[in-house]
């Protein structure tokens, strides 16, 4: 390190220590005043519903497991704003956020108070909801909320809304299949009615039978989905329970203090560098000539002070006050030095 930095810090210890202390105190206040976070957890068992074959007997590793399928589907649902808002309304998160402030935070000061729907959607984003696969049939879900009861209720609402949404998608797809095959049945029936040859009538009749069977199968699947409400069976192994205490409180406080110390130290170091550079420039500034400094000093003295005409040193010439050279009016006079030529003449 540059020795000049150490010298500058030694001369201004209090000045350069103050930013570090202030930054650490401010960051700690922000962390302490921030709202606490509580985490609720649940474990789900996912399997193929009857009458399908259970995935417990599936040994092919290339087949995507029910747990992996459920994780992908739920993660995709959570990217939908309407899905998150439905969870917040169902689990009480929206009501809680409407009656409680979001706490004192720097982002809140900079952005202002966000709309309620935005706060609900943000409270259920990827930072607050974590989905992990713990086995071929097991997925674990953790949810962070502002209150223990709200966190547990919101996680229950998430599981219920996930089940309901997955069932609705299955029913909608089955309805689309019924409509699709019904159009094919109608087209085959029209072709049969307008067939002009026995061969065309036979082909249209065959197509009609095929499309009719497909439509009937789609109708059976649709009826089963309406009764079953699921395309895969979900069993809650570990029910969400209200957490006993907040999470990561000490870690957040420690991180805030360390971040504040770092920012304060950086500001102090920049101040040391700037002040050291300024002092070095002042030390290296060249001194003005003596004659210039004397003339400047005389210019700031009494205006009645007579000017002095300076002559080259050793020139043997006289100098007089009042700005005249060689006039003998009683003013101070400097005797001309005696040269070798004058001594010879004597």
Please, could you describe this protein's structure?
This protein starts with a helix and ends with a helix. The protein is an alpha+beta fold. It has helices at residues 3-11, 13-33, 66-78, 81-91, 93-99, 106-111, 116-122, 148-193, 198-228, 249-284, 290-299, 340-345; strands spanning 38-47, 129-133, 138-145, 233-238. The chain has two domains: 37-56 and 64-245; 296-346, no CATH class. The protein has a four-stranded antiparallel sheet with strand order 2-3-1-4, with helices on one face. The chain is built from twelve helices and four strands; from the N terminus they run ααβαααααββααβααα. The model is unreliable at 318-336 (pLDDT under 50). It is elongated and about 130 Å long. It is 59% helix and 8% strand. A hairpin with a 4-residue loop joins β2 (129-133) and β3.
Q: Secondary-structure element order, as H and E?
A: HHEHHHHHEEHHEHHH
Enumerate the strands of the largest sheet in spatial order, edge to edge or round the barrel.
Answer: 2-3-1-4
* Quaternary: single chain
Strand content: 5-15%
Quickly count the domains. 2
Mean pLDDT: 76
The geometry reads as elongated
Approximate helicity band: 55-70%
Distance between the termini: 73 Å
In short:
The chain is an alpha+beta fold.
Note the main attributes of this structure:
single chain, 346 residues, alpha+beta, 2 domains, 4-stranded antiparallel sheet, elongated
Fold blueprint:
Layout: H1 3-11, H2 13-33, E1 38-47, H3 66-78, H4 81-91, H5 93-99, H6 106-111, H7 116-122, E2 129-133, E3 138-145, H8 148-193, H9 198-228, E4 233-238, H10 249-284, H11 290-299, H12 340-345
Antiparallel strand pairs: 1-3, 1-4, 2-3
Helix pairs in contact: 1-10, 2-10, 4-8, 5-7, 8-9
């Amino acid at each position: 390190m540059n020795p000049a930095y150490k010298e500058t810090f030694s001369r201004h210890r209090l000045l350069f220590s103050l930013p570090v202390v202030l930054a650490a105190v401010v960051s700690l206040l922000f962390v302490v005043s921030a709202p606490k976070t509580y985490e609720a957890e649940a474990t789900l068992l996912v399997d193929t519903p009857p009458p399908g074959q259970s995935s417990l007997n599936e040994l092919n590793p290339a087949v995507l497991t029910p747990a992996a399928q459920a994780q992908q589907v739920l993660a995709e649902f959570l990217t939908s704003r309407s899905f998150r808002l439905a969870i917040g309304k169902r689990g009480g998160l929206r009501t809680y956020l409407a009656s409680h402030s979001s706490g004192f935070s720097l982002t809140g000061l900079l952005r202002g108070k966000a709309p309620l729907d935005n706060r609900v959607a943000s409270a259920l984003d990827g930072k607050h909801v974590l989905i992990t696969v713990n086995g071929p049939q097991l997925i674990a879900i953790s949810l962070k909320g502002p209150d223990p009861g709200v966190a547990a209720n919101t996680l229950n609402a998430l599981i219920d809304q996930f089940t309901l949404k997955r069932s609705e998608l299955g029913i909608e797809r089955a309805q689309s299949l019924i409509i699709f095959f019904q159009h094919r049945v109608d087209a085959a029936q029209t072709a049969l009615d307008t067939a002009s040859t026995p061969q065309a009538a036979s082909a249209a009749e065959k197509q009609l039978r095929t499309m009719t069977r497909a439509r009937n199968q789609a109708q059976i699947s649709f009826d089963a989905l309406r009764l079953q409400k699921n395309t895969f069976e979900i069993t809650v192994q570990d029910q969400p329970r209200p957490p006993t205490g907040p999470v990561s409180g000490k870690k957040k406080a420690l991180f805030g203090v360390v971040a504040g110390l770092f920012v304060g130290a950086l500001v102090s170091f920049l101040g040391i560098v700037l002040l050291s550079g300024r002092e070095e420039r002042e030390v290296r500034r060249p001194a003005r000539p003596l004659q210039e400094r004397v003339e400047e000093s005389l210019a700031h003295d009494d205006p009645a002070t007579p000017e002095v005409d300076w002559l080259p040193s050793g020139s043997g010439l006289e100098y007089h006050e009042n700005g005249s050279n060689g006039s003998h009016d009683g003013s101070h006079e400097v005797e001309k030095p005696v040269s070798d030529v004058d001594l010879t003449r004597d």
